[in-house]
Amino acid sequence: MAVHEHPHRTSGFHLPSFRRDRTAFASEPAVSEAADTHAAQAYAFASLRLLTGFVFLWAFLDKTFGFGYATPSGKGWIDGGSPTKGFLGSVAAGPMESTFHSWAGDTWADWLFMLGLLGIGLALVAGVALRLAAVAGTVMMALMWIAEWPPAKHLSDGSPSMSTNPFVDYHVIYAVALIVLAAVAAGNALGLGRLWAKLPVVRDHGWLR
Length: 209
Prior knowledge:
Strand content: under 5%
Helix content: 55-70%
Structural class: mainly alpha
Shape: globular
Largest sheet: none
Low-confidence stretches: 1-19
Order of helices and strands: HHHHHHHH
Mean pLDDT: 90
């Protein structure tokens, strides 16, 4: 019976090999760098989420109480003013001009608009229900984009529209930002996203995340 030699199975004394240790040591900086990059991205998205949330919350508060910025003092929602009458009533271009004029100042439009601002703002600041916030915010921004109608070079009275870009304006940027924040689960950092995702109703219905 032939005996096959196995040169790698010698029983002599071996010096310890540091090859594996060197490989592990060399990979540690790469792992640390990747972790740092991931953390930086998470906090960057969290910062974007908080700032965007504040934009929506501030709009709600200013229109409700009339802080004297976009909404004059004494003309807030609590003073009997309408959050939609001024904006929708001044629409002067686009395919829905007459429709927006008919909606301006309606109670249902005021409530829907203000609840949208409040709900989206709170969701973003807390880092919860970002998918719902993205859908609601995108619909709101789309309607506001149509109301301003950037493609128009002239308003309905013939005056220049002063549009700076026929397609992309801040409404489009906000909508894309909302979608991105929901896609990357931006509520997990500096927010309640992880706790929210653990709720049974949220686990069972992914669209609530």
